[in-house]
Write a structure and sequence with these properties.
- This protein has 85 residues and is mainly alpha-helical.
- It has one domain.
- The protein is built from 4 helices and 2 strands; from the N terminus they run E-E-H-H-H-H.
- A two-stranded antiparallel ribbon has the order 1-2.
- Helix 3 runs antiparallel to helix 4.
- The structure holds zinc ion.
C-alpha cells in the first residue's frame, strides 16, 4: 500500500517509509517536514493528496496501516480528483 508525503504528495510504498529510511527521515516524513523528493525545496501548492495524508496523520496518529488503508479508500472515492495538483 502507498502513502503520500504530507508536504508534496509524492507516493511511497509504506514498507519503504517504515523500514528503509532512517528514523529521522521517517519522523520528518510523518511530521510533514518533507521527503527525499521535496526536502529543501519550495512546495508552491500542496496537492490534495498531501493534505489528505496530513489530516489522516492527525486523526490516526501512529496507525500507519490505517493511514495507508484510508488513503486507498480516498483514492477510490475521489478518482481523478485524488491526483489533482
Ligand atoms: Zn515530499
Amino acid at each position: 500500500m502507498d502513502v503520500y508525503c504530507p508536504r508534496c504528495g509524492e507516493p511511497y510504498d509504506l514498507y519503504y517509509i517504515q523500514h528503509e529510511i532512517t528514523t529521522e527521515e521517517r519522523k520528518d516524513f510523518w511530521a510533514g517536514k518533507g521527503c527525499q523528493s521535496c526536502r529543501g525545496k519550495e512546495v508552491a501548492k500542496r496537492p490534495f493528496r498531501a493534505q489528505i495524508s496530513a489530516v489522516l496523520r492527525d486523526v490516526l496518529g501512529d496507525d500507519v496501516d490505517g493511514i495507508a488503508a484510508q488513503t486507498e479508500d480516498a483514492e477510490a472515492m475521489l478518482g481523478e480528483g485524488f491526483w489533482e495538483k
